[in-house]
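The methods section describes the discrete structure representation at length, but only in general terms. Since the whole study asks how a given chain folds, the encoding of that fold should be made plain. An entry of this sort, consisting of the sequence and the corresponding backbone structure tokens, reads as follows:

. . .
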Amino acid sequence: MNRTFAIAVCALFAAVPAFSQDAHALLDRMSEQARTYDSVLATYTSTLTDHANDMEMTQEGAIEIEGEKYYLDLGDYVVISDGQTVWTYETAINECYVDDAEELAEDGMDPSKLFTIWEDDFRSEWRGTTTVGSRQVAQIHLYPNSTEDKSYHTIQLYIDESALELVRAVVKGREGTDVQYDVHTFKPNAAVTSGRFTFNANNYPGVEVIDNRL
């Protein structure tokens, strides 16, 4: 597993929205509710499928979000951001990579926007309803208005309309790599851990810090 997978999502896209008003209305309701959240705690499973190399990788994740800040625990990696800087700590080799949050977000999906990704310059398309597990969900596809330098072309959202909760997101990559996120627990306005959103090297004895910022 590489650290790109630890912090980014890849996706696929297309098309002209046939029922875009329905999609816009639901996403507007999602955004309105999201604005009432001071924080979010969530757990999920992510599955990366590399179709070109016939490879699949699954891992469990847990995330705490407060505004633009987040703490993402992926087991092998811990990804921390204060909204300006991203620290990616690799547990196996005790190394921490430091990157600019804005530049890193341009290469993938900002984890702090996992539950509001549709607000970022996308066209939306209503694709009807389906089921995920035992839940009836609405399916909406997002297509980026600006495709330059995007590693994905479509994000598929599966939304529980009654709860206004994201149940699944599938990011479709241009190079044949998809990442599916299945949300297991979602707790808005939960208490977050103080000091969680910065990397303190003192808590990782002997850590090697590699600063990738220019």
